[in-house]
Amino acid sequence: MSVIPGWLLRHTVTIEPYLGDTAYGPKYGPPTSARAFVEEKIRTVRDKDGEEVTASTTVYLLPTQGCPPESRLTTPSGRVASVITSALHDGGGLPTPDHREVTLT
Asked: How far apart are the C-alpha atoms of 99 and 35, rounded to whole Å?
């Protein structure tokens, strides 16, 4: 497996994984730091329900990094955003940079 090169992961983000809803609102797991590449770019994506929404940021992580939809992610600038989508890109043995792509509100 060819993983995204470490020299591309120039940023550090904080991820609080979404665990579900409670009577008091969403519940998140403990915050963890992860190396990432953060791209501030506005684009239209589909959320987990298939609705079109506007994403303001795309974050690229190691493929082993968990980051489920609706998690809370803090970018290097200090902005806290919600995860719209989290997709694993795995080349299945081809010489491509395997990674996880996360889009944020």
From this structure: 12
